[in-house]
Design a protein that fits this description.
Elements lengths: L4 E3 L8 E3 L12 H23 L3 H14 L4 H13 L3 H14 L4 H9 L6
Antiparallel strand pairs: 1-2
Helix pairs in contact: 1-2, 2-3, 3-4, 4-5
Length: 123
C-alpha cells in the first residue's frame, strides 16, 4: 500500500512528510498551513470564474488579482485578470498582464489573442 506524503515546500529541505503532518519533520515548516494556503489560491480562482460567468466582472477581476498577488507565476490567473480588466475598459492593464504572461510563457495563445485584440503584436 502506497503511503501519501507531502513534500516540504522549503527548497532547502524537501523532506517527505505524512499527509496529515502539521509541521515538517525535517525543518519544522508548517506543511499543513502551506497546503491550505495553496488550496486557497485555487478557491479564489474558482470564485473569480464563477463571478465572471455571472457577469460580476469587477469582483472577478479583484479575485484574479488576489491570486496573481499571491502566485505571480500563475499564468492562468494572469490571463483571467487581463481579460477581466479588458472587459472593464482597462486596456493598458490588460496589455501589461498579457505581456507578463508572454514573458513567462512565450507563445501563450490566450495572451497572444488578447494582445492582438488590443492591436499589439505579441512578442
Amino acid at each position: 500500500m502506497e503511503v501519501l506524503t507531502v513534500r516540504c515546500p522549503d527548497p532547502r529541505c524537501g523532506t517527505g512528510n505524512p499527509y496529515d503532518a502539521e509541521d515538517c519533520a525535517g525543518c519544522g515548516t508548517p506543511v499543513r498551513a502551506y497546503g491550505r494556503l495553496t488550496a486557497y489560491a485555487a478557491h479564489l480562482f474558482n470564485r473569480g470564474l464563477a463571478a465572471a460567468r455571472e457577469g460580476r466582472t469587477a469582483e472577478a477581476r479583484d479575485l484574479f488579482a488576489a491570486v496573481v498577488h499571491w502566485c505571480p507565476a500563475d499564468v492562468e490567473a494572469r490571463n483571467a485578470l487581463a481579460l477581466a480588466g479588458l472587459r472593464l475598459g482597462d486596456a493598458d492593464g490588460a496589455r501589461r498582464q498579457w505581456e507578463l504572461v508572454l514573458a513567462r510563457r512565450p507563445g501563450d495563445p490566450l495572451a497572444g489573442r488578447g494582445l492582438s485584440q488590443l492591436g499589439a503584436a505579441p512578442r
